[in-house]
Hints:
- The chain has helices at 2-12, 15-18, 35-45, 47-64, 72-97, 113-116, 118-133, 136-145, 148-164, 167-186, 188-205, 209-221, 223-235, 237-247, 252-260, 263-280, 283-292, 296-330, 332-361.
- It has 362 residues and is an all-alpha fold.
- It folds into three domains: 1-19 and 136-165 and 250-292, no CATH class; 34-135 and 293-357, no CATH class; 173-243.
- The mean pLDDT is 76.
Amino acid sequence: MRQLLERYLARHFHLDEVLSLETLPTPTATPPLRLRYRIMARILRYAPHFLGVLVLVYLAHQRWAFLPEAYAEWYYTIYVLAVTGLVGYGTNWLAIKMLFYPRRPRPIWGQGLVPAYKMRIVERFAEAISRYILNEEVLQRVLHEAGVAQKLANALTEGTSNLLNDLEFREELTQMGKKALQRLVEDPIQQRRLVQVIDARLLQVVPGGIAGSLFRSYRQLNEKGYREVLARTVLSIPEAFEEAMRGLHLPEAEVRKAILAQTEELEGLLTEVIRSIISRIPLYPIIYNQLAAFDERQLEQLFLYTTSEHLEFIQNLGALLGVLAGVFIMNPWLSLVGATVTIGGLWVLDELLYRWQNRRSA
């Protein structure tokens, strides 16, 4: 029976189309990084290596003196700037690594920020997602905008109409019902029970008067023949069922009209059912348990997957900031003047370009 229903339900009830949610907008592809950002990131990527080479060259010169001595002061200046640049890069690199390492608590080094506060981070993530991103109101709005209840009601009414008018389904159902009834009436115990039930019903429905008296007299005087008639009647139930099913006529137009007339009521019922189901889904515990199942390595990969480019940029930017810090240490007044002129000039240029773009777009 289950296989029969699965086969014909899949033929007439296309519920996969109902839950496709085609009205949802397709997520746009992640926009590529701006050209100037990509150029700066590519340049800064090689900055630590370049500064390291400068430091090694200076240290090698201190040992073997293979560079002209006339520029010894310049060599020292470049060396200091390279060292401060590497210090800036190293501090940023260490700060980023300290977010994730050590994964396990160590006696001296402690534990990384993310592993140490894993459950707190998971709790905040789960709370933020369940409150602002994936909540009951959002799910109900998405399903309402997609018309899921209406589509489901139409699919059920249409599928029911088609199923009831499927001659192949009715024939298989008839044969299956006939075989089940045959097994029932051929069982001696069930046969006796059916005979008793039919006998009791006949005594209830037979009218009084002469006809009733004749029936009761026949039942008492020819009890054996009466029981045989009831037994043959019971054995004929499967054929009677088959004949009745094949003689059953369901006008397709009337069946479809009767079912489709209930679409609006069915849609309202399905809307309430969907709303009730959504309201009972514990979104926060589900999200919390999923995130809590992540180990420290998976959390690190999650962070790096979403922010790797930016973390690398910040890490390499430390080299440039370190060089600028070295310039400030060696000549603070010149550094202040240079920084003021540079930052002020860039600010003015940015403001002019911004206004020009607004004027052009208007």
